């Protein structure tokens, strides 16, 4: 099952999305910052015109900030619960013979929230995820979206936040104990892109501040240890081109003609 997530910055780039869906054989399409003046079904129509049938999964409420489309039967994906900036859905897996929990998110920007506020918000999202997992009585959970935080930011790594770590072997231990309380891990494979690859993140911002990272890894996928056996790091990708169309500018940064974010693709063999 192949997933594509893209924050499209409210741009109508439906033709590019459709091309990417076809080229990469996408099964589940996740779009953040969908244009507010366009019916979400227009993207479905664009895909249909290209010979690919996708269904639009209507959200429960406007709080769901990520539009979800799938080539599977709509009955296989079920809305569970929405809160501000975060949404839970379930996807039936014939391999697991169980429902996988899909959490999508578009969390507040660093422009509007301090690092401390983002960290506190991550604790609220953690509580939301735990409530959903308790409802299903399992942790077949994947979280995907625009976190507006880097993998090394406090909200992503703290135990009372996402508790998302870079090391798969440690993550497979499932949890760790702090002051006699258990805290479940997430595995964050996006750490592997930090460095000297084609790109070092999914969003580029050159500030005039003394502390400037240039590249940011805001768009991420996190997995509970239970799903790690069904995930292949080699099939995780930050997309920089769609066929011959380059999503980077001539100087190798994100081309805002399309979006200020690059899409990510990952596969779960479920």
Keywords:
Deoxyribonuclease I, Chain A; single chain; alpha+beta; six-stranded mixed sheet; Endonuclease/exonuclease/phosphatase family protein; 270 residues; five-stranded mixed sheet; Endo/exonu/phosph_ase_sf; globular; 19% helix
Query: What is the fold named in CATH at topology level?
Result: Deoxyribonuclease I, Chain A
CATH superfamily: Endonuclease/exonuclease/phosphatase
Q: Which residues form runs of ≥5 with pLDDT under 50?
A: none
Q: Helical region count?
A: 5
| N-end to C-end Cα span | 6 Å
Spatial strand order of the main sheet: 3-4-2-1-19-16
CATH architecture verdict:
4-Layer Sandwich
Major β-sheet profile: 6 strands, mixed
Mean pLDDT: 95
Strand proportion: 25-35%
CATH uppermost class: Alpha Beta
Protein name: Endonuclease/exonuclease/phosphatase family protein
Organism: Parabacteroides merdae
Molecular structure report:
- The protein is of the alpha+beta class.
- It contains five helices and 19 strands.
- The protein has helices at residues 14-24, 41-49, 115-136, 154-157, 168-171, and strands spanning 2-7, 28-32, 55-57, 66-70, 77-83, 86-93, 98-106, 141-146, 164-165, 175-178, 181-184, 186-187, 203-205, 214-216, 219-223, 237-238, 241-242, 245-246, 264-267.
- It has a six-stranded mixed sheet, with no helix packed on it. It has a five-stranded mixed sheet with strand order 5-6-7-8-15, with helices on one face.
- The longest helix has 22 residues, at 115-136.
- The protein starts with a strand and ends with a strand.
- The mean pLDDT is 95.
